[in-house]
Amino acid sequence: PPALEIEDLVVRHGDRAPALNGVSLSIAPGDRVAIVGPSGAGKSTLLAALMRTVDIESGNIMLNGVDIRRFASDDVRTRMTGLIQDPYVFQATLRDNLRLAGPDASDDDLARAVRQARLDDWTGRTGWDTTLGEDGRTVSGGQLQRLALARALLYDPQVLLLDEPAEAVDEETADALLADLLDATRGRTTLLVTHRLRGLEQVDEIVVLEDGRVVQRGPHHALVSVP
Ligand code: ADP
Ligand code: ADP
């Protein structure tokens, strides 16, 4: 089955017009899909539905073929995890910030080996080890997002969620940050939510959301005429 399948999703906030009005999308294992759209399109509502923090009026969300209503909320949030908006940083090096993170921060050999392997994979993909010795409190917003992604990957989520990962940094940093995040997530099932189309050449599919509906979908080169 698809890693994530959303079928005809309708979500309404109170008695307003639906924030999501029949949205369907599917992510094959290992693919990356970007949800793009202007403010108010329904992107946050879609993430909230995935995290089960809003009620679904109708439609289904399936994770590897299983309806997410069958999971406990906490369970859903470890299966689908990603960049949180305000990553917490310990007063320690980035390396130690990573050592202290993860679903099993215990000190047994296996847990340590698993964390080390994921960290090696991560630094191999990003060349990030040059900065791992830096103090977490002094690094830039872009480095914090890289830290947050590395931490999220320690959970080895079935679907990685990236919510406007380049929102809090300036335009120039944003391009480099997004490129790094996309390099580091190649081959990993990812849902990226963003209001900008720029820098999305690498993703497998772009889904354009407007007024709670999918108005276009396809690879980047097919959508370059989007305003
Ligand atoms: P986006 O993330 O693309 O900016 P949202 O999902 O935040 O879009 O919003 C979709 C629509 O739902 C908008 O019309 C917005 O005003 C409305 N909306 C979002 N959250 C709430 C809420 N908590 N209560 C009422 N309306 C909301
Ligand atoms: P740039 O990064 O060069 O500014 P973007 O592709 O991010 O260009 O888009 C510029 C503006 O168009 C942004 O305000 C963005 O919110 C809006 N935009 C981008 N894609 C869409 C879309 N699919 N539908 C509606 N608005 C969009």
TrEMBL record:
It is found in: Cell membrane. Residues 4-227 form the ABC transporter domain. Signal peptide: none annotated. This is Thiol reductant ABC exporter subunit CydC. It comes from Planotetraspora kaengkrachanensis. The chain holds residues 325 to 551 of 566 of the full protein.
